[in-house]
Design goal:
single chain, 2 strands, 2 domains, mainly alpha, 61% helix
């Protein structure tokens, strides 16, 4: 193994750690049943059960729910619900697996955003040891610790348990899933 490959492997430990942490915390949710609004948005919604409606779910607000007066339309959410329903043949595990993966990716983006923002500031606590390089700029260990702590808190915070366990609340994670990489590109 060459030096460059070793360096890449060392940089992969953080996203892998965050994925492992999210998986351990929410592994038990893979068998959670459909509850509450899941029946309106997923179980009783024929537009979610077949791939032929995949693009209609994005374009047509009437495919979002079987409720007569839908509260809100989220085409991308219906798109992902269709993919999960078809992948699991109606089982709940693909919905929850998608949430675990998205949750870990959001935490990793949060870690990277925090690193970028801290790299622009003075090192914390006067620390000058340079252990991590981002675009040619050394980042002190304390910045990595702060960034990783923020990402871990994001994963383990109990305020996110509803989003992780309740299938119909996928739009919250999807918003962060697309927003955080955008912020990362901006930083």
């Amino acid at each position: 193994m060459e030096f460059g490959e070793t360096k890449k492997l060392k940089q992969l430990w953080i996203p892998l750690f965050l994925l492992a942490l999210a998986s351990c915390l929410y592994f038990n949710s893979l068998t959670n049943p459909f509850v509450y609004d899941d029946f309106y948005y997923v179980v009783s919604n024929p537009f979610v059960h077949n791939l032929k409606f995949l693009w209609a779910n994005i374009a047509d607000p009437n495919t979002h729910t079987v409720m007569p007066d839908p509260a809100g339309y989220r085409g991308l959410t219906s798109f992902f619900r269709t993919l999960c329903w078809v992948a699991g043949s109606g089982a709940t595990w693909p919905f929850h697996l998608q949430k675990i993966l998205m949750h870990a990716l959001i935490a990793w983006c949060l870690y990277l955003i925090t690193l970028k923002l801290l790299a622009r500031s003075k090192p914390l606590y006067g620390e000058t040891s340079k252990l991590f390089t981002c675009k040619g700029r050394s980042i002190p260990l304390t910045n990595r610790v702060v960034a990783l702590t923020g990402a871990i808190l994001f994963i383990v915070h109990p305020g996110l348990s509803e989003t992780m366990n309740y299938i119909s609340s996928t739009s919250t994670l999807q918003t962060a899933f697309f927003l955080y990489p955008s912020c990362l590109g901006f930083c």
